[in-house]
Prior knowledge:
The complex is a heterodimer. Chain A is an alpha+beta fold. Chain A is about 35% helix and about 25% strand.
Amino acid sequence: MTLAPQKGRALILVGALASVFTALSFRLFDLHVLQHKELSALAQANREQVVHRQGRRGMILDVNGNPLASSLSVRIVTADATITTPQASAIAEQLAPLLKTDVDSLTQKLSSQSRYVRLNPRVKLDEDAVQKIRAMKLKGISFEDQFVRSYPNGPLGSHVIGFVNAEEKGVQGIESSMNDYLEGQAGYEVIERDRKGREIRALRDEELGPRDGYNVVLTVDQVVQHIAEQELEKAMTEFKPQAAVIIVSRPKTGEILAMSSRPTFDPTNMEATSADARRNRCISDVAEPGSTFKIVVCSGALNEGIVTLNDQFDCENGAFMYAGRLLHDAHPYGVLNVEEILFHSSNIGAAKVGLRMGPARLSDYIHRYGFGHKTEITLPGEVSGIAHPLSRWNNLSITRIPMGHEIAVTPLQMLMAMNTIANKGVRMKPMIVKSIKDENGISIFDYQPQVVGQVIAPRTCTLMTTALRKVVGPDGTAPKAGVEGFDVAGKTGTAQKVENGQYVRKYYSSFIGFFPASDPEISILVSLDDPEGGAFYGGSVAGPVFKAVAEKVAEYLGMEPHPPQPEVAKLS
Amino acid sequence: MMKRNRKRESLRLGTVTKSLVVCVCVAISGLGYVWQKNAIYRLGDEIKKRETALSSAQKRNMMFAAQLAHLESPAELEAKCQEYNLSLVAPKETQVVRLYEPGPEWDIQMANAPIPTQTQPRQQAQVKLQSRNSQPTTLARQ
């Protein structure tokens, strides 16, 4: 009698337990078998984390291995502005002095409602500042490591080196043209963290280390660059031109030792620079070259055997009427030979040499020297200049082009033309990258000097050099460009500027020269756009800059003095 | 009865011993596993610490390299020279002694040269000196 209800209750209990266990078993089966794939992936995602490691951007080095640009790992303070918004101004006041920024801009960032804001993208934070910020225990503020580009020389060579944007991508200069080599490759790690957020190293799953970018070695020498920029700066102070450029190169190889233009910029302070200052005028600005272009017509005519250095031309006492237009010389000259035309820089003489040469041959030499074509230097933003095809020449062109009008060239093109004469008629491609090396200094690729072609015969170059030596002599247009102890050859240029289609009383004053003239090692171009203070002739404005740079460069490179040979020895 | 009881007692002891051995083995394996795991984690932590130290040393190295590059920059050196009033100037040409490295022709010449006697080198030197001095005169005469 008493057993029946107990048995019933026991059965109910067993039934209930069996149902519960059946339900649990089914749920377990569902979780472990039926939903295994999705749930295990979710669990793994909760546990594991893929951390990307950025590869360091390669360095830009000068020819002696001195760093011109490198990347530094710095702490970046980041904020989750959705958390910081309520106390934005209070946090900003605490952080502003440590991040070296103003409170207002920081408040704006901290209240931007964005989940990720960088508070100090360009300020290098020292370890003390990091500890101080940590001690503040601010909610929504965290740290991350990031590479920041550093330029140890500041604005030195900034037009060549260029700069990078916030994502460390090259925007200008070598930073841009060699970006593919400089950029590192990111790596990754699959890690697991403990409850404090620290990585459990033993559970690191996969690991692929980042690869640092390659180092780019330039032909530029930072000391030569410094000398060139220092002298250019002095000229800027003395003559106050609108712009100025300087290029130092080796004529035999086409290597660029220094290249700079003014106005300039500091890549460490990009906010304070204008687009105008960032332009590398050596390759991106064109202008009529003026008298420096006479080397093209005279060398062409000598090379063709149309004239000799002793052939005489009547320079019409400074006024020559051709095709109904008058052509003037700066000083009136009577009869001059070709050598005198060059060192007195007679426009009429050059025009008459051009007339004897003829348009077809002159046009041919213009293109052989590379005018109207890019030099293909490894720098972005180069322009090809303006050298009209023969079909677009007018009646006056044959008298105007020989004196450097009706043609527009870049300073680099003009220097490479002079280098051709210095290099026995062999035109070289300008070279600014010497090699690419990995982080251990092992060379990946070595660039070699490249010959573009033979423009004129070596004998013509000897004749041209003889004439160009006299330019820096007492009777030449640039006696101030002479370098003590060295035999210098060069050519001055004073080109009138064109404004609104009219020639105005503003000038491009330039001087291009090389030394030692008998065995050229260095060539230098100096050009100033619209110098002030009365002096505007290339010989008196750019000549002294050439002299100053040449003297210091020769001293730095340990060049042995090479005085002009006595006339008697030369003739023999 | 006594015999049966003794047999039961001896069986129990054996079972207990076996069980104990198994338990001890399981415990040792368990502890060994835990110890091994612990060692792996400890080593992992040490690797992590060294990785962090290496990374921070590399960062410091980068920072020092950049600092050094800045201190060695021509502008900085010039500024320091002026600051300390060092009055450094470049040497004059007369103060420079140039040493010429002979080229490969010199090596060939030396390899083929006879072993000099005591008087030979001086004579050779005199000849060379004379020829060097005579060059400009010859040129001038020409």
